[in-house]
SGNH hydrolase-type esterase domain-containing protein (Saprolegnia diclina), 277 residues
Amino acid sequence: MAELELRRKDKEASLLPAQRLGWRRCLIAACLVLAGAAIGAAAGAAVSAGLATPLPSKVEEATMAPLPKPKPLLLMIGDSITQQASTVSLHGFQALLAEDYIRRADVINRGRGGWTTRNYLPTVPAMVQEWAARPPSLVILELGTNDATRPNATDQYVPPGEYKANLEGIVQGFVDAFPATKFLFLTPAVSDDDMFAHQAHLNARAGAYASLCMEVAGRLHFPVVDLWTLLQGKQKEVLSDGLHLNVLGNEFVHNQIMAAIASSYPELTPSALPVQL
């Protein structure tokens, strides 16, 4: 080693300063190569001796935890009473349901102001396609208030026979695509003949269509909340304009929906569903 060191010093002494720097870099690189080779040889020996685990020849696929089941979907279909149910300032019954089911289920509002069963029936295929990847667990159906308007008073009037057929067609369209989907019917609510200026909506006519709604729900073996009977005589307490629900009215309907779910579909109550992200 002493002789090698003397040779190295003699070699450096014969070089110019720039050449000395290059020479030293070459020596360092050579040392690193030799050190790497030594480490590799030692690792190979350790593997052969069973002292170390060899690196895999290919990257193994990571084992992923199973994805959680999607949250249940509650789909609400209806007219302006359902559409306004998302209004937080009115304590809308859809907004209250969304709060009840937060992180447990998604509550979707498809209410359309002014719509009737005649309007909704042809849209069922599009709704089925929309929810094909995630079928609704429960459809809450509130239609009939506009169907029940006086003939010739508006273009919304739907005759009783057609109303029943349309209701059945809407339900059947979902059931054919999603056999496990459950339904909850809400009858047309009350109207206040003294308050509602247009007089197209009359309380007695709403009651007649509420009976038709209950008939269809019974024939299809689905639960129904008879809002017309439950709110009778409370019009001035629960309506904002003689037709649409105020805060008290929305809270009342929300409570009735929750009671109906608990009675008919206890597996879909918030407490029965797991909390998810």
User: Anything to note?
Assistant: DSSP finds eleven helices and five strands in the chain. The chain has a mean pLDDT of 86. The beta strands are 73-78, 106-111, 138-142, 182-186, 224-225. The CA atoms of residues 130 and 143 lie 21 Å apart.
